[in-house]
Design a protein that fits this description.
737 residues, 1% strand, globular, Far11/STRP_N, Striatin interacting protein 2, Far11/STRP
């Protein structure tokens, strides 16, 4: 298709510009030609319109026919994308995308076919490819960007975030495409491109993880809270991967050689972290450092600073902050609930009565208890949500998670976003299961060949491409959901809990565990890519003749970073769903997640191991003494890698939270709190819960509702989505009421 795009551009360009190439034109001439292309997009003929769209795609791809190197292709792709956006290309392609989505003839034709191929989604793929290149090139910031480009970037971000020109935000349009595809109404949609573009749009409009950290710091400053002392990603970068538990029977020779290089780390694991030791000699350090680099190139822990802190100075003794040993990567934390529980036990023991949530009154308690409370308060972190929850009511909420900075008023209830919430929840069973390697279930990818009879070589090439598409789908879904959950949590904790509970009810936890119930090491080292066909390499070099040997060889990369990224995202999602939720932790125990997660420790990557160890730590108290006794290496790794929490009896199982409570009641209580929050913040206030109900249809329809100013822009879309497209069974409705 690269060749087809180039041919369409050259045919059109020769009719408009004589004896010159694109790179030889002045900027004004380039703008004039782009304006002519956009004018030729507004033709009735689908075939002519597709040729012009392919010409625009060739420009967005970097006019590789006139370039000599891959660097030149990427440079001109970025330049052309800014030029195309400034001339209004994105708006023109957005109108074409609306036309293709509403094309009922294409939907009905795809529904009648027994199998979908790439020929059924040609127009959509061209449109989405242009939009993706525009979003990705404009989204990435560089120091060399001109002021005009920086202004264009902010304008584009605003345009994607808000409802403009009687249209819904672009992210919601993509979510509607996901809904139509998952419901089976539009099986020809290229879902990989839709999900990938949706993830990039959300990342562009809301910001990625680095921007989230900046927002977190700003909100804490606004609430008068102390600044954050740690950045989790930066701390993990300085950590080094631990030796995985021994699985001699399951490993091949190459993997066993990988494990034998970890002897020095095993020796380190058996040391006492707080015991004074003689520093190692230079020869010992050199021998320990050979071959000890992890995937991120972290330094050996044996070559770092001594584990024992130096003697404290007079200034440090007078400071209120606690000095922690350098051997532990994280500073310990304490929740307010832990201090209250500690004081409740102490008061019952020494005084005989309690004072509820009072953590300041220490009258009657011995001096060591005073010191303990002082130490606990020094490592207590007050979250911004705790301060935010002190607010009793609010009229507007900035739901940046989907529509940028669109303010939603009381009339649009946050508690029933059926449209996009159904999109999020249907992604899991629809794709995460079928996209597992070696899964027998089929998933529709936009790489299926339109030809029935293919050779063995074409079959191998298609198989590699299908697996690559599955990997990209998993990557997009996991990154999108993690980003949305983190933004929800920053915006308000009950929004996060609401979406999390829906994901749990959609079987998110067992699906992730099922995904990891495979050979994760082989999944991360999979080579489902053909390097000579990757962009921009394939556009510059002459393609060699593909053989079965070259396809089996794959690329030279030792690991597939795409799959590693997906695994880390899924583990982080699982952590977010189960953290401090004992009912969901019991789901991990019931589904026997411990051996599945323990096998994932074979992957020698610090961040992945950290989130695996976190999941093992929260369920250790439920696994019994025998499991802890036979997995002491894992327990030691948890102690070294995971943050310590004061009064957390995770290693012994004596915690009061480990008792067999009614876990279903815990979820019901959480749901009741969420409903109360939604009712308090977004429902119309009622004088009393026993207010009379108006049964007159005429007066009910005549009531005036306070709607947001921009609601009339998307009123028809709202009707189509929430009213006309919802099936209503009137007989059942009458029977129930």
């Amino acid at each position: 298709e690269f060749t087809t795009n180039r041919r369409c551009f050259e045919e059109d360009f020769k009719t408009q510009v004589q004896a010159k190439e694109w790179l030889e034109l002045e900027e004004d001439a380039q703008k004039a030609y782009v304006m002519g292309l956009l004018d030729r997009l507004e033709v009735v003929s689908r075939e002519r319109r597709l040729k012009v769209a392919r010409a625009v795609l060739y420009l967005a791809q970097g006019t590789f026919g006139e370039c000599d190197s891959e660097v030149d292709v990427l440079h001109w792709s970025r330049y052309n994308c800014f030029l195309l956006y400034q001339m209004g290309t994105f708006s023109a392609f957005l109108e074409l995308l609306h036309m293709e989505i509403d094309n009922s003839q294409a939907c009905s034709s795809a529904l009648r076919k027994p199998a979908i191929s790439i020929a059924d989604s040609t127009e959509l793929r061209v449109l989405l490819s242009v939009m993706y290149l525009l979003v990705e090139n404009i989204r990435l910031e560089r120091e060399t960007d001109s002021c005009r480009w920086r202004t264009a970037r902010e304008t584009f971000r605003t345009e994607l975030s808000f409802s403009m020109h009687n249209e819904e935000p672009f992210a919601l349009l993509l979510f509607s495409m996901v809904t139509k595809f998952c419901s089976g109404l539009a099986p020809h949609f290229p879902i990989k491109k839709v999900l990938l573009l949706l993830w990039k749009v959300v990342m562009f409009t809301l910001g990625g993880f680095e921007h989230l950290q900046v927002l977190k710091i700003q909100k804490r400053a606004e609430l008068g809270l102390p600044p954050l002392t740690e950045d989790s990603i930066q701390v993990v970068k300085s950590m080094r991967a631990a030796s995985p538990p021994s699985y001699t029977l399951d490993l091949g020779e190459s993997q066993l050689q990988l494990l034998t290089k970890q002897d020095s780390l095993d020796i380190y694991n058996e040391r006492d972290l707080f015991k004074t030791e003689e520093p190692a000699t230079e020869e010992e350090e050199e021998s320990a450092g050979d071959g000890e680099r992890t995937l991120d190139g972290e330094l050996d822990l044996l070559e770092q600073d001594p584990l024992v802190p130096p003697p404290p100075s007079q200034a440090s003794l007078s400071a209120e902050r606690v000095a922690f040993p350098k051997g532990l990567p994280w500073a310990p934390k304490v929740r307010q609930k832990d201090i209250e529980h500690f004081l409740e036990m102490s008061r019952n023991k020494f005084i005989g009565f309690t004072l509820g949530q009072d953590t300041d009154t220490l009258v009657g308690l011995p001096r060591p208890i005073h010191e303990s409370v002082k130490t606990l308060k020094q490592v207590t972190r007050v979250g911004s949500q705790r301060e935010k929850n002190k607010e009793t009511k609010g009229t507007f909420l900035q739901i940046g998670s989907l529509v940028g900075t669109l303010e939603v008023s009381l009339a649009q209830k946050f508690k029933s976003p059926k449209f996009w919430l159904s999109c999020i929840c249907c992604l899991w069973p629809k794709y995460l299961g079928p996209c597992r390697p070696h899964s027998k279930a089929t998933v529709c990818t936009d790489s299926s060949s339109p030809h029935r009879s293919i050779t063995v070589l074409q079959s191998m090439k298609l198989g590699i491409d299908v697996n690559r598409h599955k990997e990209i789908i998993v990557k997009s879904i996991s990154a999108l959901l993690l980003l949305l959950l983190k933004h929800f949590r920053l915006n308000h904790i009950y929004q996060f809990e609401y979406v999390s509970q829906h994901l749990v009810f959609a079987n998110c936890i067992p699906l992730i565990l099922k995904f990891f119930n495979q050979n994760i090491l082989s999944y991360i080292t999979a080579k489902n890519s053909i390097s000579v066909l990757d962009y921009p390499c394939c556009t510059i070099q002459d393609l060699p003749e593909l053989t079965t040997e070259s396809l089996e060889a794959g690329d030279n990369n030792q690991f597939c970073w795409r799959n590693l990224f997906s695994c880390i995202n899924l583990l982080r999602l699982l952590n977010k769903l189960t953290k401090w939720k004992h009912s969901r932790t019991m789901m991990l125990v019931v589904f026997k997640s411990a051996p599945i997660l323990k096998r994932a420790l074979k992957v020698k990557q610090a961040m992945l191991q950290l989130y695996v160890l976190k999941l093992l730590k929260i369920q250790t108290k439920y696994l019994g003494r025998q499991w802890r006794k036979s997995n002491m290496k894992t327990m030691s790794a948890i102690y070294q890698k995971v943050r310590h929490r004061m009064n957390d009896d995770w290693a012994y199982g004596n915690d009061i939270d480990a008792r067999p409570w009614d876990f279903q009641a815990e979820e019901c209580t959480l749901r009741a709190n969420i409903e109360a929050f939604n009712s308090r913040r977004y429902d119309k206030p009622q004088d009393s819960e026993f207010s009379p109900v108006d049964n007159c249809l005429q007066s009910v329809l005549g009531q005036r509702l306070d709607l947001p100013e921009d609601f009339h822009y998307s009123y028809e879309l709202w009707l189509e989505r929430e009213v006309f497209s919802q099936p209503i069974c009137w007989e059942e409705l009458l029977q129930n009421h």
